[in-house]
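Model it.
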Amino acid sequence: MKKIVVALSFLLTGLAAWAQPARIPVNDLNTNSNTKPNNTTPKTENNNTTTTSSGELKKYSDPNGRFSIGYPSDWTFDNSSEGAVVKITSPSEGSNDQFKQNLNLQIEELKSTMTIEEYVKINVDGVKEMMKGYKEVSSMFFNRNGSRAYQIVYKGKYGDITYDIQIKQLFIVANSKGYVLTYISKEGERDAFETTANKIFNSFKL
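Modeled.
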């Protein structure tokens, strides 16, 4: 199988760039669906065609009509990254904050016959091969807004990082596309943003 990327990107305070994303096999199509069309205009805070405010979260609507997602105004929103369709990063908790929690969204073109079960298995098997000390915390299939979905929480070490990270992922297969929404936090550390991250997950709609 040719490998397509689903990034487990995470930001470490003091580094100039995002760490190298995890390489996880998704399907056998040799495409990179995370690359945006050339006519897509990156979002800015004043671009009202893609962003509106609603309650506690701002709403971002994908200009290609694939999804919408909410995010707090004090989190950093990026839809111009090479590694993900969107990245949403938590604000700093102070000068001693060595890790910023973050979310990213990946969208992959799939074969029309691929099921959510197949898509999840390929991804999770890839994660198990890559992460040191992989441990599943919870997982479940469920129906979400008319689509069959899968949610998993797991933890382990990635790359050269010496501490465990905890990852929550939502998988959805719809319209021959695979959607993976990922939240990354530092395992064992008080997560002041977990409730907000759950709100962002709940706001995600196709």
